Amino acid sequence: MIPFDFAYYQPSSLAEAGGLFAELAAQGKEPMYYAGGTEIISFSRLYQLFPRAVIDIKKIAECNMLEQKNGKLVIGAAKTLSQIQESNVFPLLSWCSGRVADHTMRNKITLGGNICSRIPYREAVLALLVSDSEIIIWGKQGLKKVGLNQVFHQTLLLEPGEIVVQLVIDQEVTRVPFTSTKQTMDGLVHYPQDRIGYPVVSIAALKKKNQINFAFSGVCSFPFRSTEVESFLNNPSLPWDEKIHQVAEKLPAEIINDMEGSADYREFVLKNMLSDIVKRLEG
Amino acid sequence: MVNLVKMDLIELAVNGEKRLVMARPADTLLHVLREQLGLTGSKPSCKNGDCGACTVLIDGQPIKSCLMLAVEALGHEITTIEGLKDSPIQRAFIDKFAFQCGYCTSGFIMNCHALSVIHPDAGDETIREWLQSNLCRCTGYEEITEAIKSVLAQEPKENNG
Ligand SMILES: Cc1cc2nc3c(=O)[nH]c(=O)nc-3n(C[C@H](O)[C@H](O)[C@H](O)COP(=O)(O)OP(=O)(O)OC[C@H]3O[C@@H](n4cnc5c(N)ncnc54)[C@H](O)[C@@H]3O)c2cc1C
Ligand code: FES
Ligand code: FES
Which UniProt keywords apply (chain B) (predicted)? Predict the structure, then answer.
């Protein structure tokens, strides 16, 4: 049971949602956009979040789109991970989304919710980072479209009141070779039916014009795609074994060290997974 | 636009009936089903989305009712274990000894029932993926898998793929 009260609003347009947010924020209600609501409910129950108002975005048409148009794939932020997985319009995203939580949870968790989550893993983001996806955000100035890699640094950089509306992916990228692996405390996860759990390490990789794009979760306390790591790993003058051996020195932050996996263990898993990924993509 | 700014009456469609309940906007569906409607078949356990004991169907899809607000269910068809009567999966759970203490059972049955309706031709991988949403501390899951397989085997198949 959530031990405090909040008000619930279900607007049907972006402007209405943004207007409500501004009004409620001015009243000191600390409003939150509400999509699947699974994180808001579970954190509120534990008194780790205290919104006085939630604004449900699920009835906003733009947030519910899933369409392929003019060479682009457009996915609304309120689409659930199950809907995305089942549509299989972008197989790498299906893989990454299909390993978040469990099947029933994925009927509720949304893509936008996973991207904006405060937990460190946010695995669906990996597919979007490596594919150079664009993100459409609604704010006071209206809609803007930006590269996700420009606005995702450890976390998605949103101004108060901004709404993630859609993700836009170049359809060409949905057809290039890719691979993705996740290891949990219990073992390797290749397919959704394998195992569930937060990742010890989760990697998505995609090969585009002889270069492999990599994104990581479970390694540092945030998901990332790093230019430094990527240009080092793609340096043709060094052999793969050597690059993988040295990869830990290039990471953007310390490796997580907790009860689900020590830093040493995570580094070991990271290197093994990278070797495996390179074998799969480089043959 | 549906707004619920304070505790108020809302009308939910539960097991084919319209039911009026007094709900706070912050009340979970699980809480309202149990405490307002006396539908105690949906079980509270982790309340964190991990165990699946609270699983109900929303428009036929399994959802963990501990992580859904009651107000979110407005305009949707809710089915709880009390809404299933003599379904093949209930019979199969008895025939295959698919429960011991029974605490997890209603959640498993709701999930398995949805699976048999949505994917009557489900193969081993789909069964495994769906069943991972629920935890059982008593059985070894084998009997539960046998129960769902026995139901799927009875379903008329359009596509065996
Ligand atoms: C049982 C369980 C298991 C999990 N396992 C995994 C896992 O294995 N891997 C993993 O990566 N994650 C996992 N998660 C975490 C989950 O992916 C996140 O908590 C996610 O935020 C839930 O999405 P939601 O749609 O329910 O979010 P909500 O609770 O609706 O929102 C979460 C946050 O995002 C914001 N938000 C949501 N949508 C938008 C939007 N369109 N625009 C702006 N802000 C928005 C909200 O304001 C809030 O701050 C798990 C969660 C649970 C409950
Ligand atoms: S009580 Fe809802 S998933 Fe455990
Ligand atoms: S039968 Fe006891 S928890 Fe499943």
Answer: 2Fe-2S, Iron, Iron-sulfur, Metal-binding, Oxidoreductase
pLDDT at A190 over 70: no
Contact B90, B84 (CB under 8 A): yes
- The whole-number pLDDT of residue A281 equals 93
Work out the pLDDT band at B157, boundaries 50, 70, 90.
Answer: low
Question: Which tokens belong to A98?
Answer: 């299909």
Testing ligand 1's pocket by substitution, the residue of A117, A121, A135, A217 carrying the most ligand atoms inside 8 A of its CB is A117
Task: Give the distance from residue A5's alpha carbon to the nearest chain B alpha carbon, in angstroms.
Answer: 6
Query: What is residue A110's DSSP assignment?
Result: B
pTM exceeding the 0.90 threshold for the entire prediction: yes
Kindly tell me the burial class for residue A206, based on how many C-beta atoms sit within 10 Å of its own C-beta (0-12, 13-18, 19 or more).
Answer: buried
Q: What is the SS3 assignment for A17?
A: helix
Distance CA B78, CA B58 (A): 5
Tally of domains in chain A? 3
Candidate CATH numbers 1.10.150.120, 3.40.50.300, 3.90.1150.10, 1.10.10.10; the one for domain B84-152: 1.10.150.120
DSSP B1: -
| CATH of B8-80 among 3.40.630.30, 3.40.50.300, 1.10.340.30, 3.10.20.30 | 3.10.20.30
* Interface ipTM > 0.85: yes
Q: Is B28 on the interface with A (CB under 8 A)?
A: yes
- The residue that leads in pLDDT, B159 or A253, is A253
- Pocket around ligand 3 at a 6 A CB cut-off: B 99-105, 136-139
A99 and A125 part of one domain: yes
> CB–CB of A104 and B5 under 8 A?
no
Measured in Å, residue B136 CA sits from the centre of ligand 3 at 5
- Residues of A within 8 A of B5 (CB-CB) are 7-9
